Amino acid sequence: MKASQIRQTLSVAEQACRSSGARLTEKRKNVLTVLLRSKTPLSAYEIAEHYNSDVGDSIPAMSVYRMLDFLVTENLVHKLNSENKYLACAHITCDHSHQTPQFLICNRCSKVREIGIRPEVITALRDTVESAGFHLQTSQLELDCVCDECSRDAA
Questions:
Q1: Could you give the CA distance from residue 121 to residue 131 in angstroms, rounded to a whole number?
Q2: For the whole model, what pTM was predicted?
Q3: Strand 141-145 and strand 112-117: pairing?
Q4: Angle between the 26-37 and 44-55 helix axes, to the nearest 10 degrees?
Q5: Within a 13 Å sphere around the CA of 94, how many CA atoms are in the beta-carbon half?
Q6: 92 contacts 16 by C-beta, under 8 angstroms
Q7: Exposure string (b/e) for 43-66, b if CB count within 10 Å is 16 or more?
Q8: Interval 50-102: pLDDT, tens
């Protein structure tokens, strides 16, 4: 992401936090910036490493986890449960309501694409889960894929 896009995204993120009564502190903003710059999801330890080299300030991984919890709560960051890694929400600057996120994860290059799931798909999934005697806890989907670029490289 270009520097101008990062600045715009951070500005929208700050406004969203103010609207919800939260505060996007400088350290939280720096963690979000690390994720906005990254082409792949990062673990808290990887974020701490990037933070230290980008900002020139040491930050413990436990602090990063607390900041990530805040950013996830504010819908600015998503956690990929299958990989225990984080990525910035692809829709921070959008002005429409968001669908349930679905993450397409390339198992070769680790690139991730966030797309929305239509509500009727989630309803059908929830109905299927409940008919099996279970209750859906989260409707976030993470799919193991191969991106077009890696498919071409393998051919």
A1: 15
A2: 0.88
A3: unpaired
A4: 110
A5: 11
A6: yes
A7: bbebbbbbbeeeeeeebeeeebee
A8: 999 998 889 999 999 999 999 999 999 999 999 999 999 998 998 766 788 89
